[in-house]
Design brief:
Blueprint lengths: L4 E8 L3 E2 L14 H16 L8 E5 L10 H8 L8 E4 L5 H14 L5 E9 L6 E2 L1 H12 L3 H8 L9 E2 L12 H11 L4 H20 L10 E3 L5 E3 L11 H4 L22 E11 H6 L6 E10 L8 H13 L8 E4 L4 H12 L1 H8 L19 H4 L6 H16 L3 E8 L3 E9 L1
Parallel strand pairs: 3-4, 3-5, 12-13
Antiparallel strand pairs: 1-10, 1-11, 2-10, 5-10, 6-7, 8-9, 11-14, 13-14
Helix pairs in contact: 1-2, 3-14, 6-11
Length: 431
């Protein structure tokens, strides 16, 4: 890469469990664009950056609200950004919060922009529930019917079964599997036991608990008022389970393969609401403006693989980025592999360490290498913090750079699996 991309600073909302039938989510009253707007306002306030100096705003979002097409434009205007600043939304499933950043990087390096605010947001509490085609036909028919008799004729064709909801994102249409079912396949491929998955989940929760107690997340989280009256303020992630132990985890039943499965609600990522954002520009631009970045994005790679093994995407993308940069896995001081599922992260570890796997599927002469768990997800991950799918990629970048700075280390590798059979990997350097 000709020049490093400076990341001036980044912030995120607390990541909070989404609304479910039993418990309303803390951020459930807020739509995705509201979460994103809050992050944009707070990021500009924290950095003192003038919104007039932005060239564009790019945000990632996966399940776009039907009332907010191109929600980035909506969140930007809500945040008070001048209307002349353009904005648009990107979607690469779980990597959308990284896609916004790498897309912005490309525009900057190509000379089409100098300063971009990038990020991601997701409100899993407000996932739209859709009607099937038969119910839609009923509604359309009623709208077109002019007379009472015509309306009654349409109504006579209605059946209660037509009310069955269609919930976006449950199945991957390429392999007709839920994401958790793909994790079950990986657990079988690599003989990953339920105990190993629960031990990994415990590690994630324990590390996140310690990080929160030590104030590690305070520099990246911006408090947010919560509805419905907006008199209370949420200041921290609410998915961290203090005192998590194996005894408690082992009590839970598998949720995707109830007979022979190993993936449970506790060893997979939490369904969460949240948003994150950061400001990027060329390194030379930052120096000219007298800004001190939290770090730099130096390179990235995206890779494709079989959709039913999508969880192994980090293996493929990491292989590509190591070839591009000439680095070895051991060169990185911190590594983040997004915790979509414990089985998926463990599967990535085993695939990277397997010479046979790397030769067969990646065309490499040797294994990628052994992932050092002392460097991996050192403050927990999506199992403990949650996974608001459009925002997670941005959070990983922000957190890795801030943690490198805390540890006085320099090199970070951030990776993430992507539904549909893709993976991404980014290389970062702390200031």
């Amino acid at each position: 890469m000709a020049e490093r991309i400076a990341i001036i600073d980044g912030v995120r909302t607390p990541f909070c469990k989404s609304t479910n039938p039993k418990v309303p989510g803390v951020l459930g009253e807020m739509q995705a664009d509201d979460l994103g707007a809050h992050v944009v306002k707070e990021l500009l306030a924290k950095t003192g950056f003038d919104a007039n100096d932005l060239d564009e705003i790019i945000f990632g979002n996966v399940i776009q609200p039907p009332q907010s097409t191109n929600l980035t434009r909506i969140l930007a205007v809500k945040a008070g950004v001048p209307e002349r600043i353009p904005s648009y939304t990107v979607n690469r499933n779980c990597a959308s919060g990284m896609e916004s950043v790498t897309t912005g990087m490309n525009k900057i390096l190509a000379g089409y922009a100098d300063v971009i605010l990038a990020g991601g947001c997701e409100s899993m509490s407000n996932v739209p529930i859709l009607f099937g085609k038969k119910m839609i036909d009923i509604f359309m028919g009623l709208g077109k019917a002019k007379s009472l008799s015509a309306k009654l004729d349409v109504i006579s064709k209605f059946r209660p079964a037509f009310l069955a909801p269609v919930i976006p994102g449950l199945l991957d249409p390429l392999c007709s599997l839920q994401m958790g079912q793909t994790a079950e396949l990986i657990s079988k491929d690599f003989s990953i036991s339920r105990l190993e998955q629960d031990e990994f989940a415990m590690m994630s929760q324990n590390r996140a608990e310690a990080a929160r107690a030590n104030g590690i997340f305070e520099d990246e989280i911006v408090p947010i008022p919560v509805g419905p009256k907006y008199t209370a303020v949420q200041t921290e992630d609410d998915g961290i389970r203090n005192g998590t132990d194996l005894k408690g985890l082992q009590k839970l039943r598998p949720c995707f393969d109830r007979l022979a499965g190993t993936v449970t609600p506790a060893n997979c990522s939490q369904i969460t609401d949240g948003a994150a954002g950061l400001i990027i520009m060329r390194e030379s631009k930052a120096k000219a403006m007298g800004l001190t970045p939290i770090g730099y994005l130096t390179d990235y790679a995206y890779a494709g693989l079989a959709p039913d093994r999508m969880g192994l995407g980090p293996v493929y993308a990491t292989s590509q980025i190591l070839e591009r940069t000439g680095k070895q896995l051991g060169d990185f001081d911190l590594i983040e592999i997004n915790e979509a599922f414990a089985a998926q992260v463990i599967g990535c570890e085993r695939a990277m360490a397997s010479k046979e796997y790397c030769q067969k599927y990646l065309g490499r002469a040797d294994a990628i290498g052994v992932v050092d768990r002392d460097k991996l997800n050192v403050n927990g991950g999506a199992i403990s913090l949650g996974h608001p799918v459009g925002a997670t990629g941005t959070r990983l970048i922000i957190h890795t750079l801030k943690e490198l700075k805390r540890r006085k280390k320099q090199h970070g590798l951030v990776t993430l699996c992507i539904g549909g059979g893709q993976g991404t990997a980014l290389t970062l350097e702390a200031e």
